[in-house]
Structures are given as structure tokens and as C-alpha cells.
Amino acid sequence: MILESLFGLAGFFQILAQAALFFFRPKKGEGICPRLSIVICGRNAELDWKQNLPSWLECKSSNPVEFILVDDGSSDASLSLLNGFAEKDERIRVVRIVSKQSPGKRDALLLGLSHASHAQVFVTDADCKPDSPGFIQELMHILGHEPSLFVGNGVLKPGHGFASVLATSDADRLARMNFSALPFLGFTTAVGRNMAYPREIGLSALRYSRKFGTAGGDDDLALPFLLSRCRNKRYAIGPYTLSDAPKSMQDWGQQKQRHYTTAPHYPLPIQLLFSLRWALIAINTIGFFALPFITSSVVVGLVLSGWIVQLGSALSWAFRFRFSRQMTLVGMGIYLLAEILAIFVPFLILIQRSSPKNKTWNAVS
After folding, report:
1. Engineering a disulfide at 245: which of 3, 16, 156, 192 sits with its beta carbon 3.0 to 4.6 angstroms away?
2. Residues 116, 38: Cα–Cα separation, whole Å
């Protein structure tokens, strides 16, 4: 009876959380952002700069925009490449870190923000590009005429391998969970490669996150600080940035490892919320496979409804951001299979991480 009640509650809250994404719309600011500094960081990202920077430079904007390109101590030809772009476009300024004081991209972000001229900044990474030429103009309309905190979405582009599609599905699930919680719980975490915030508050937030000493997730750890100090808060699924998904299980495992080293430093309410979300999804999934043994028709209905809404949310998300632009029919099938498997991903990663054969995962790249 207790187990059936858990299944029923998980299905009910699954319906609420996933459905909220489709019925709640973000509030946009009044007017349009008058000036915007775009800070893009990269380390040994010569190929990424070549592929993605032109897309940013082609974005349209009615108001002034500057690009602060940060070379994070690269050993490849990134610096000379960026200087070449700067010679052709007066909106570009290139800065470089010679020696890093801390792991991750915190130093690069601090350097980029310190060189930004405008009160409103947008931050992203060299391996990301805008979803369309209208990205900057759309963002400026969402931000409004006063400096604001913006939390957006960073979409991963799956490759042809199963690991890539699985990683993409997992990232999409996290994004859906976050956005569906916003109407009720506010911001919980953020996509660091698609955030905007007031420059001065962003500098203070990054200095605040320095004390945690993690190798990644500096943007996420700074979010509670940003939330408490930013008067204007915006969020939207789009415009979104695009970046390549990890191509192998090992690459994905290292990426997830960085996430897990960051998670313990979140405020306790956020940790509890994440745990609750995954628990509800896992219980609802177990409940689905336990349907033949459930005696209550009400619980059967809740579990089925929760599962249908869960997969319906995945389909809607995928059609909106993936199938219409990037995915083949074969990719669609793999994506949906990965969606089901990704339900248990955090648990599998934790088990794998604790295995003596995989201690190398504890070394953060």
C-alpha cells in the first residue's frame, strides 16, 4: 500500500512538473537592452573559434554590441586566429590569460567581465554558437532596458554515436526539469554557456564562487549570489545556444563527473530539489514496470498519465529543438530510447564512479 502510494504521488507530481513547461511563459523586460557585452571564453579552441565565431558576428542587433574574446591560456593557434578576427571587426577585443590561478573557466570569465564596457553582459563558450542570426536581438528584447539576470538553455547537438545521443537526451532532461520547476520554485541552476547578468554583480558572484575551488560549474555556484542581488530576472527556453555533445562514454563521464563535484556545493534546498526530481522520475518509471502488480485503478491511472506526460514532454522538446533541424529518423529512435535509459543515468554514473576499475573518473580533466 505504501509503495503504491509512492507510485501514485510520483506520477501526479510528474504530470504537474512536466505540464508546467507548456503553460507558463516567461516575462520579458520592458523596452530593449541599450548595449550588450558578449563574453566568449575558450581554451585550445582554435577549431571551435573558426566554426562558431562567424555565427556570432553575423547576428543582427539594433543597439551597440561588443565582443570580448578570452583566450584561456591556449597552447594552440587560438590567439593569432582571434587577433585576425579583431583586425577585421572593430567590435572585437581580445584578451588572454597567461597563467591560470584556479581550475575551470572562472579566471577567464573574470578577465572577460573586467574588460567589458557595458553594464549588461552575456557569457558563453567558444564551442557554442547561436541558434539563429536573430539570437542577440531576441535576447536584448527579453532583457529589457535595465540590466537583468537571464537564464537560458544550451542545446547539445548529438552526433551519430549512441553515447552522443544519450548525453544529449540527459542534458535535455535536465533542462526540461529545470524549466518546468521555474513557475513554482524559481531558478535552481543555470546553463553557464547561455546566461546574462549585470556586469558588476557578475564580477562579485564569480569572486564569491572562487571559495569553492571546483573544476567546473562556476556559473551554477554563482547563481544563488546572482539571484539575491539581481532585481530583474528573466528566463526563456529560447534563444538558445548550440554545442556538440560528448562523442564517447568516457567524455560524457568526465563531463558528468565535473557536475557531481559541483553539486555538493549547491545550497541545501537546491540539493534536496534535485534529489526529489530524480526520485520522482525513478519511482514513476519503476511504477510503470510494476503496473501488472498494482491493484488500485487510481494509482494505475496516475502512473500511466505521468509516464505519458513524461514521454510527451520529451517528444515535444525533441521536435521543437531537434528533429526539425538536426535529427534523422534513426536519430529520433535512438533519442527516445536514450530518453528512457537516461532516467537512471545519475544512479548508473554514481555506481560506476565508485567502482575500483574506474577511479580515473575521479581525475577531473
Report:
1. 156
2. 8
Q: Which helix (H) or strand (E) holds 44?
A: none
AA letter at 202? G
Residues in Cβ contact with 276 at an 8 Å cutoff, skipping those fewer than 6 apart: none
Q: Dig out the grid coordinates for 160 from the structure.
A: 551519430
pLDDT of residue 157: 84
Give residue 216's pLDDT band: very low, low, confident or very high (50, 70, 90): low
Q: Which of 344, 358, 298 is nearest to 9 (CA)?
A: 298
> How many structural domains does the chain have?
1
Is residue 3 a part of any domain in this protein? no
| DSSP code at position 65 | E
Report how far Cα 198 is from the mean position of its chain's Cα atoms: 19
* Amino acid in position 88: K
Residue 93 falls inside a structural domain: yes
Q: How far is CA 251 from CA 244, 247, 248, 280, 287, in A?
A: 12, 7, 5, 28, 32
Average pLDDT across the chain, whole number: 82
- The 10 Å Cβ neighbour count of residue 308 is 15
> Cβ–Cβ contacts within 10 Å for residue 83, how many?
14
For residue 228, pLDDT beyond 70: yes
Read off the amino acid at residue 99. S
How far is residue 19's CA from residue 306's CA, in Å, rounded to a whole number? 10
Give dist(CA 303, CA 9) in Å, integer.
9
Instruction: Tell which phi-psi region holds residue 144, choosing left (phi > 0), alpha (psi between -120 and 50) or beta.
Output: left
40-49, 178-187, 207-216, range with the lowest pLDDT: 207-216
> Which residues, in sequence order, are CB contacts of 25 under 8 Å at separation 6+?
none
Q: Residue 348: CB partners within 8 Å, gap ≥ 6?
A: none
**pLDDT at 213 (0 to 100):** 67
The amino acid at 300:
V
In a domain, 130, yes or no: yes
Structural domain for 167, as ranges: 27-172+189-245
Q: Which three cell numbers stand for residue 283?
A: 519511482
pTM across the whole model: 0.84
Does residue 156 form part of some domain? yes
Grid cell listed for 208:
564569491
pLDDT at 361: 37
**Alpha-carbon torsion angle 285, 319, 240, 157, nearest 10:** 80
Domain harbouring 235, CATH code: 3.90.550.10
